[in-house]
Design a protein that fits this description.
The chain has 408 residues and is of the alpha/beta class. It contains 14 helices and 18 strands. 35% of the residues lie in helices and 25% in strands. The strands form 4 sheets. The protein has a 7-stranded mixed beta sheet. It has a 5-stranded parallel beta sheet with strand order 8-2-1-12-18. The structure holds flavin-adenine dinucleotide.
Length: 408
C-alpha cells in the first residue's frame, strides 16, 4: 500500500507535530480539533522543552519555521532551583536534559539543550502551513473499523474516512475510551492555580536564578508549592523570520514569568470544579490565601501577576498498562501517557511520539511496511518510554507535592 490517509483527532502539540511531519513526507493528513478556534481556552504559558522536543521539532518543521522556533526559545541553564518560602535560593539542582542517544543518534550532542518557550507561540509555529488540513469545531465521538481503514464519527453527526486514525486528543481521549478502555487515568490528588507575572515585575521581585534556570520551586511543610519559571525571547524575531510563511505570523508573547501555586486538594479552600467556575482575578485571591502563612516575597510575587491571567489546573495521571494491537487506530501523547507536570516532560513526549509515528508511517508510504507493522513498531517503542516517564513523574510527584501513588 502507498500513501495512507492519516486522520488525527486533536490539534495539541502532539497532533500538530505529527501532522507537520506527515506533510513533510508527502503523506495526506486531516486533523480534527474539538475547539472552535486555536485560541478558545487558556492552554498555559511557559513550557520547558528538552532533547525530545527539540530534536522532534528539528525533524518535523520546515527549516524556516524551525528557525523561527529557535528565535523564540529561551535557552535556560541546566538547573532547577529550590527556594525556601522566603524565595531565597537553597540550591540549584543539575537537571538531565533527556538526551536519548539510541533514539536520536543523528542529534547526539553534549550541548545543554534545555529551553523555556511560550506555549501559544510554539502552537502558532506548529499550526502554520496546516490551514488546509485542519478542521476546527469537529469533536471526534467514535470510530468504526472498515475493510479499507477507519471511519470516524463526529459529535455533529458527520463522518470522515481514512486509512489510519491517531487519537491525539489529550488526557480525556475519546479515541482511547474505545481503542483501549483498559488504559485508565486517575486523580493525582493535586490541583493548582496558574498565572503570569509581567517581566518587569518578575525582575523586580524574583531572584536572578528564577529568571535563568529551567524552573524554580519553593514548598512548605504541607508540600504546598510555588513554582516559578521565566520565558524571555533572546531577541525579537526579525520581520523576515516572522514573515517566512505568511506575513507577521507571530505577535511576540515572551518576557514573563509563570507562577503556579499547587498542592493536595485539602490545602485549597475550594474543589477543582469550584475553581474552574471562578473568574481569573478570584483565582489570584485564592492562590494568595493558600500561601497566607508564607513570608512576604512569595505573596508579592503572586500579587504582581496579571489578575486576568489566572486559571486552574486539575492534575491527573495515566496508569501504565497494556496497549493491545489494533491494525488501524493508535494513540499519541497525553491520550496514552499523560502525567502531572512535575518533570515537565508531557509535551516533550507528545512531540517525540509525533516524530516517531511519522517515521514509521513513511515506511508504509515507501512500500517497505504494512500499516499494521508500522503501528505495532511505533506502539512498542512509545508505550515503553511513555510509561517509564509516567512512573518517574509519579515518583517525583510523590516527593515534591504528595501526589497519589499509582495503584499496585
Ligand atoms: C500546568 C502544566 C504545565 C506543563 N508544563 C509542561 C512543560 O513545561 N513541559 C512539558 O513537556 N509538558 C508540560 N505539561 C504537559 C503538556 O501540557 C502535555 O503533556 C501536552 O500538552 C500533551 O500534548 P497532546 O497533544 O498529547 O495533548 P493536548 O495538548 O491535551 O491536546 C489535545 C487536543 O485534542 C483536542 N481534543 C480533545 N478531545 C477531542 C475530541 N474528542 N475530538 C477532537 N479533538 C479533541 C483538545 O481540544 C486539544 O486541542 C504541562 C501541563 C500542565 C497542566
Amino acid at each position: 500500500m502507498s500513501e495512507p490517509t492519516v486522520l488525527i483527532a486533536g490539534a495539541g502539540l502532539g497532533g500538530l507535530s505529527l501532522a507537520q511531519a506527515l506533510l513533510g513526507h508527502g503523506i495526506p493528513v486531516q486533523l480534527f480539533e474539538r475547539d472552535a478556534t486555536p485560541w478558545d481556552r487558556p492552554q498555559g504559558y511557559r513550557l520547558h522543552l528538552e532533547a525530545d522536543a527539540l530534536h522532534a521539532l528539528r525533524e518535523v518543521l520546515p527549516p524556516e519555521r524551525h528557525a523561527l522556533f529557535r528565535a523564540t526559545a529561551m535557552r535556560t541553564t541546566a538547573f532547577t532551583t529550590i527556594l525556601n518560602t522566603s524565595l531565597e535560593v537553597v540550591k540549584q539542582i543539575p537537571t538531565d536534559d533527556g538526551q536519548d542517544a539510541e533514539h536520536w543518534p543523528q542529534y547526539v550532542s553534549d550541548e545543554n539543550v534545555h529551553c523555556n518557550v511560550d506555549r501559544a507561540t510554539l502552537r502558532e509555529i506548529l499550526l502554520d502551513g496546516l490551514e488546509e488540513h485542519i478542521h476546527f469545531g469537529r469533536q471526534v465521538a467514535s470510530y468504526e473499523s472498515t475493510a479499507d481503514g477507519v471511519t470516524v464519527a463526529f459529535a455533529d453527526g458527520t463522518t470522515a474516512h481514512g486509512t489510519i486514525l491517531v487519537g491525539a486528543d489529550g488526557i480525556r481521549s475519546a479515541v482511547r475510551a474505545q481503542r483501549a478502555p483498559n488504559l485508565r487515568t486517575m486523580d493525582a490528588g493535586v490541583q493548582a492555580i496558574y498565572g503570569r507575572i509581567p517581566w518587569e515585575a518578575a525582575v523586580a521581585v524574583l531572584p536572578d536564578a528564577v529568571l535563568q534556570d529551567i524552573f524554580a520551586i519553593g514548598m512548605d511543610n504541607r508540600k504546598v508549592f510555588l513554582g516559578l519559571g521565566a520565558v524571555d525571547f533572546p531577541t525579537e524575531p526579525s520581520a523576515a523570520a516572522r514573515g517566512a510563511g505568511r506575513p507577521c505570523l507571530l505577535e511576540p508573547r515572551g518576557r514573563y514569568a509563570v507562577c503556579i501555586v499547587g498542592g493536595r486538594h485539602e490545602h485549597f479552600p475550594h474543589s477543582h470544579d469550584e475553581l474552574r467556575a471562578m473568574p481569573p482575578a478570584r483565582l489570584q485571591d485564592v492562590a494568595l490565601s493558600v500561601l497566607t502563612d508564607w513570608p512576604e516575597p512569595a505573596r508579592h510575587a503572586l500579587a504582581a501577576a496579571e489578575p486576568e491571567s489566572f486559571f486552574s489546573v486539575g492534575m491527573d495521571t495515566s496508569v501504565p498498562g497494556q496497549l493491545e494491537r489494533h491494525g488501524t487506530v493508535t494513540l499519541l501523547g497525553d491520550a496514552v501517557h499523560a502525567m502531572t507536570p512535575t518533570l515537565g516532560r508531557g509535551a516533550n513526549l507528545a512531540m517525540r511520539d509525533g516524530a516517531l509515528l511519522s517515521r514509521r508511517l513513511k515506511r508504509v508510504a515507501d512500500g517497505t511496511s504494512t500499516v499494521a507493522e508500522a503501528l505495532a513498531a511505533y506502539e512498542d517503542e512509545m508505550v515503553a518510554y511513555g510509561f517509564d516517564v509516567v512512573r518517574e513523574s509519579v515518583r517525583m510527584g510523590e516527593q515534591r507535592m504528595s501526589q497519589n501513588p499509582l495503584p499496585r
